[in-house]
Structure formats: structure tokens, C-alpha cells
Amino acid sequence: xxxxxxxxxxxADPLPGGRPVQALIFLVSPEDSARLHLTMLAALAExxxxxxxxxxxRAARSEQELKEALLHIERFFSLRIGDTGPTVELAGxxxxxxxxxxxxxxxxxxxxxxxxxxxxxxxxxxGDRLTIVGDARAIRQLRKRFxxx
Length: 149
Fold this sequence. Notes:
Elements: H1 34-49, H2 53-59, H3 63-70, E1 76-80, E2 104-111, E3 114-116, E4 129-134, H4 136-146
Antiparallel strand pairs: 1-4, 2-3, 2-4
Helix pairs in contact: 2-3
């Protein structure tokens, strides 16, 4: 995934240990939105400093997973349904029958390389990745319940 880019920069120091650059992020905003630009930059910097970011970034296998790794915010949660662990209880369940916390909803289901819009009758499967949105309290509860799955 991704496109290797060779940059020619005069007088550039290599990264410590000769490590490759993992990402270049270009943040573009209108000239009259300096405050918004700085707010976004601060949020990105905070996310990059969070524990687990680099693991999430390196594990991403699609553009969507890269976005989720970068935009990991308090109103958003990505949950992979496994065949073991705390998410196993969701596999085989219809969405409408899942006891979720109030204030959160499953916005997307990623399955087999496809993005599906969920319905109440959709059955979740092991391997599905759910994109969940909600208020900050609900997302905190889901993270506590399911961890970083």
C-alpha cells in the first residue's frame, strides 16, 4: 500500500539509525483559517504522540484504516470482531439485537474488502471491522469494554 516517494532535500539529516520515513502529512487549509489549521495540527500531533499510534499506523492495510489510525478521536471507535476475546460475543448477532451503550451507533461495517451500510437485520461476522461513532462518554465505555480491538 502507498506510493514510495524519493525526496531530494539538500542538507537534510537522515533519521536516527537510518530509519525510513513512515509518512508525510500535508495539511492544507484556507488562508483565512489559521486557527482551524493550528487546531488540526495540534490534534494530529497529540494523536501521533499517543501510545499505540505507531502500531495502528503500521497495521493499516487500506486507506480507510490509515484514516482511522490517524483520526482516532474520542467520538470514533474502530472495532474488529474476532473469533476469540471480548468481541466474540458479537459474531453471529443481528445488529438490532446487540446491547450497545446509549449514545453510540455502528456507522459502517467493513467486510471482505467492502464497506457496508449496516441495517438492523445485518448479522455481524468474525473478521468484520465496525466503524462506531458516538458521544465521548459512549466511546469511552466501548473502549473500556472491548479494549483496542
